[in-house]
Amino acid sequence: MQTVTLNNGIEMPVLGFGVYQVGSEETEQAVTAALNAGYRLLDTAAAYGNEAAVGAAIKRSGIPREELFITTKLWIQDAPAEENTKRAFDTSLRNLGLDYVDLYLIHQPFGDYYGQWRAMEQLNKEGRARAIGVSNFAPDRLVDLITNNEIVPAVNQIETHPFKQNLDYQELMKGDGIQIESWGPFAEGRNNLFTNPVLSEIGKAHGKSVAQVVLRWLIQRGVVAIPKSVNPDRMAQNFDVFDFELTPGEMAEIRGLDTGASQFFDHADPNVVRGLSARRLG
Q1: Residue 48 falls in the annotated catalytic set
Q2: pLDDT (tens digit per residue) in 62-79
């Protein structure tokens, strides 16, 4: 498996398996199939409600812990944020059945994320979170966090796909040693991604699907991707992207699909901020 090196020297697989919106009853089976297909990076979150099922699949797999790269995420915490972050982290570890995670992310850039980050810095120093990072942070909030705290985030997981490519933002992050990671690499099929003529023609030229073209495009850009599927055949297909390479011309064609717009929601929208901030995990 191809890897990227994070800013603290840890190796992270460039392709993983995500379980967003996978029900807890399906998750264990899906993660088991993903591990059997060769995935070693697993991405979950407290807010997904399926950490325990991910942990059960890990335990059942018998794969040595050091061969896996496990990511989970911290949801918005009430004050005192530092104390509650440590409590939430302990809950995630119990759910996963693990002694440590490889990457712990602030899930949303809201609430007292400074307090959350200070607690995460401590978890990192203790070795219980081998790397720490953020998710959904816009450039201004990311730079603010970097400038006013000790540890630079290792990863920023953001919406990234052919219609929202984050090319300039990726360069900014690269300057600070932050790895970009894509959630929603297929835009959940929105904007007719799977029938897009540009992606379809590139796929035909290589004997690959549109999904494989998108993942290969991300990998060649140095973007970590975590596609989701509950279909074992699609999982295997998504993993089969290391035997071809897109040409510079094909990369440029895909670059032309960028609209810069979210296919989901805008974290700068006041209503989105209110809605996410109002949610608390039980």
Answers
A1: yes
A2: 999 999 999 999 999 988
